[in-house]
What we know:
single chain; alpha+beta; Pseudouridine synthase; globular; disordered C terminus
Amino acid sequence: MAAPSCSAPGVWVRGSWQRLGNLFTFVSKPLCSAAAASRPLDAQRLAERLRAQKQEQKTKKPVPTNPVQRRVQELLQFTEQLQRVHPNVLAKALSRGLIHQDKDLVVINKPYGLPVHGGPGVRLCISDVLPVLAKMLHGHKAEPLHLCHRLDKETTGVMVLAWEKDVAHQVQELFRTRQVTKKYWAITMRVPVPSAGVVDIPIIEKEVQGQERHHKMTLSPSYCMDNGKTVRVRTSRNAHLAVTQYRVLSSALSSALLELQPVTGIKHQLRVHLSFGLDCPILGDHKYSDWNRLAPQLSACILKKLGLRQSKARHIPLHLHACQLTLPALQAGKEELNLVCKPPRYFVHSLRRLGLKMPSRDQNGDEEATHSGAQ
């Protein structure tokens, strides 16, 4: 009987084992090569990670020996860290620095670099931590706190929160009707003349042309000079009434400490009135120090006193502090609330370096000037 053909399908013959062995070898080679390739890939990633760490260590900024430069670097790092911390950590920090607390209100000391509301590029803001802060102060069943007003991201100082929405609306109405007295401290470049007065110039928002196109608030005066004569001009319908009272508390050769009392509450009002109205921009105001550029304009005298180079001037924080807020009584039979907040450390250090004096109140309530180093 003839032997079956070795090419017939499904027949187990000696020649078929060779073909199956070749097939196994063909299939297993890619699998083995893939497993072998994965090992060098992991090693390559590890090597890249080590190189990145070494590069980060090389590019790590050295700690400045100058105390002012070191403080500026610390403040810049602190501002960046504020955007990365957990809301619980930020709420804990705010709770430790409470200025006032009662059954209606909570008053915090707003830190530098922390925005009040969210927006593009904002990871963390005060409004995000209000529920956590309320639970820390009143237990886990507490309702979130409510904002009563706002401060700019770079402004420090007194900020009022309310437990109930109705109370928040009541405080907001007091702000809107200008029944709240607000006082700020600002360190300015140059000394205003006269040393006390009122800036009553409307403010309007305009687009700045040039390489860096952006929008700024600016003055929209009702009068202008024409051939030596004062001429009234038509006020834009988009301009806002803006009034600021100011007085010099302390002055040096090229800088001053001012007390500011805004009568109105227009966006960036204090910064615009000081920079464009009095020609005394606030120290660290990189937006309004110059109309065309978003860059600080510091004199050589101020840089020398601060111990900074011009290349580091952009890291100087805004020296604008909400130092006092007087709130009328919210209910009959209660007294007005006078809230006072000390300036941050960098503010006090700048006063000392610039040779300025910070006022303080003695036990009788009279105001006197004392050296900032005594604080």
